[in-house]
Amino acid sequence: MMGPLIFLVPIALGLGALGLLAFGWTLRSGQYDDLDGAAQRILLDDDRPETRR
Amino acid sequence: MSAADTLGQLESIVPAASQSARSVAGFVQAGADGWRLHMLVDGAHCAACIATIETRLRRDPDVIEARLNLTLRRLTVAWRGDRETANRIAGMVEALGYGVAPFDPQHLVRVDDQTGRELLRAMAIAGFASSNVMMLSLAVWAGQAQDMPHGTQMLFQWLAALVTLPAVAVAGKPFFRSALQAVRARRTNIDVPIALGILLTTSISVIELARQGRDVYFDSAAALLFVLLVGRYLDFRVRARTRGAVERLLMLKAHGAAVVQPDGRIEVLTAEAVTPGMIVLVRAGERVPVDGHVDHGCADLEVSIVTGESLPRAVRPGDAVLAGSISSGILRVRATSAVEDSHLAEVVRLVEQAELQRGPAVTVADRVARIWTPVIHGIALLTLLGWWLLADATFATALLHAVSVLIIACPCAIGLAVPAVQVVAIGALLKRGILVRSGDALERLAAVDHVAFDKTGTLTEGRPRIVEWPDDPAAIRLAASLATASNHPAAQAILAADPSAAMIEGAVEHAGLGVSAPIAGGEARLGRAAFCGVAASSAGSDSEIWLSRPGHEPLRFGFRDPLRRDAETTFSSLGRQGFEPSLLSGDRQSVVNDIAAKLKIADARGELLPAGKLAALHAWRAEGRKVLMLGDGLNDAPGLAAAYVSASFTHGAPASQSAADIVLPSDRLGAIVPAWRMGRRATAIIHQNLVLAALYNIALIPIAVLGLVTPLGAAIAMAASSLTVTLNALRAGRLPAEATS
User: Which has the closest alpha carbon to B68: B108, B27, B39, B95?
Assistant: First the structure.
């Protein structure tokens, strides 16, 4: 019974931690700074990527 | 000198190109690879607005980056090349039909962004920890019921500890910090029992784990943290949202000062940057940015928002003008004092004084904590002594039971009970255009026992209207034609009756007197009684204008600042609730009495300076009355700050908005009634929630005292009580119809 648990539980925790890290990255890169704008921008039919010239 | 000459001279010193878009170069910052300008955009609210503005700006070859933040309505533009391109960029956005106001991001409070991110991060960590620890704990509880080997149970508990301990250390910081501050200041707030609860739960679990005992509460600690952080974050969101909205209102009004430089250029500076002696240009319809003396030009100043006087004041060269008044014509003003010495700064000082005397608000949650904390700690101590001395348990067991009382009684649902209701109620008011700046403003609104109103701009419309017309359509038409030549509020009011009136060739405005124009058979005049050659009537020369024509008797137009349309219904619905409002006005006593008679106000005081209004509110406070004050003027700001709770309007002076707890939509006095009812309802639901949360605790404390609480029981109780208060809070969004009895 202990066998599978030894690696399944760390994998489960690891995946959760990965999600947490991803969330931290989105937070730091300012993706929650303009929630209203993000909701509206999806309607923009603009195929060009938003790059700096 | 005639007004037309003045106009011509001043126009000549204003370069034609800069008429529509004046220089905003003062707000440009040097960026990494060029220049950067931050602007507040008024009127942007949808995807189409984002596309229009950003596409237009990006089409410009110099522009590197253009991004509109729709939440904050802020536009950031970066470009290469010339600093002066800023004017072209602002012009481009204005040409699309949006109002822009440049601002310096350094002047904005940055705290909000950081606090929001910290809370969101803490919430994510606590969420991760609580879900994973719950997964491990469920396995253990299931294992205890069946036959999981002891070693596996211990492994799971250790893993839970591994996740919980760092999560508590990081995500618990906001509570620990606040509790530590309170303890250092020898106060107690809601965070003290929360921090204590979290710490005790975690440490007792670690000890139990080391002893291989049963009472391991890591799941409770993590879930407690998560639920509390959700409440904290909701609370923060509401305050940040309304504060952002108020900040936007203020920034759109701060237009900066158009300073005439020695070389004749006109540059827009922030009002703070204006020093005494500088010449500031004020165009028709604009606010005077600083105190000063008129250097050149004549105009009528609308001072209602500054002093509360309803009728305009005529100024000529040499006269003093106050910051905040609206000019009807072009003026050149020599600044006499820097912003920190101005009339505005004096008012701001009074506001600060009043806020200092009012002291920080004690919220319901903190009041509950003050009672709750000693009671619970007392029960825990009795439990310890009872088990140890009376029941002959070992000290360790007695301590465990005592701590389980503290864990069960930790004000988790209480932490959620108040913010959840405030979020729902403030959000519902926001949909009606009513901004509530702090959660506890609703609590204070519900406790109000007296209401005081400002007059000009609050009960009245704040600008004069013609209320007595002569019975002669031809004369009205002629008066309207003459009125086209003037920006005087009364002239504008006559013009509004016949907007199609054609301007008469050769019409000349005589500032402070009236307008004259040549017509067939002589000269027509529209203006003050003396100007038209008649004696002023009994009503006084300040509330009438006359029209004189060759071959006719002079005709009289009476004007007055009329009551708002919803003033009477507001008063009758306040009257039904048992309020007897007072009136505090800066206007002349005769005008105040007139309004008071119409609205049947017994306590009407006129000719009050800002300090006078402040004194009136202090007197009420000394009597122990809780006063709601409504006002929109600069002169109301100290009174608003001193009141128990206060409301301003979107159309009001910036200082009044920042002093008030609530900002009502422009020109809608009646909005105070639903706001008050919402405050009552929200407070009632908050009290229900606190009782509900306490009931859960009270029901479980005896079980904890008897030492019968298990980790599973604690988890179920916590989830159930949090869910109950949250669901109950959702009821706060509906506003019941007013009882008509």
Answer: B39
Interface pTM (ipTM) of the complex?
Answer: 0.82
Which chain B residue lies closest to A14 (C-alpha atoms)? B132
Please name the member of B70, B117, B131 whose beta carbon is closest to the beta carbon of A37.
Answer: B70
pLDDT at B709 over 90: no
For CA atoms B660, B664, B666, B672, the dihedral sign is: negative
A5 part of contact set with chain B, CB < 8 Å: yes
Interface contact A14, partner B, CB < 8 A: no
> Among this protein's residues, is B454 annotated catalytic?
yes
Answer yes or no: do B64 and A52 touch at CB < 8 A: yes
What mean pLDDT value characterizes chain B?
A: 81
Query: At residue B135, does pLDDT exceed 70?
Result: yes
Q: What are phi and psi of B434, to 5 degrees?
A: -100, 120
Give chain B's domains with CATH numbers. Answer: 22-108 (3.30.70.100), 441-461+564-680 (3.40.50.1000), 465-560 (3.40.1110.10)
> B313-316 — which CB contacts under 8 Å span 24+ positions?
B314/B511, B314/B512, B315/B512, B316/B511, B316/B512
Q: What is the distance between the alpha carbons of residues A21 and A37, in angstroms, rounded to a whole number?
A: 24
Strands in B292-296's sheet, in edge-to-edge order, are B266-269, B257-260, B279-282, B331-335, B292-296, B320-321
> Which of B215, B235, B440, B454 is an active site residue?
B454
pLDDT in tens, B299-357: 888 777 777 777 777 788 888 888 878 887 788 888 887 655 667 667 777 777 777 66
Across the interface, whether the CB atoms of B149 and A19 are under 8 A apart is answered: no
Which residues of chain A, if any, have pLDDT below 50?
52-53
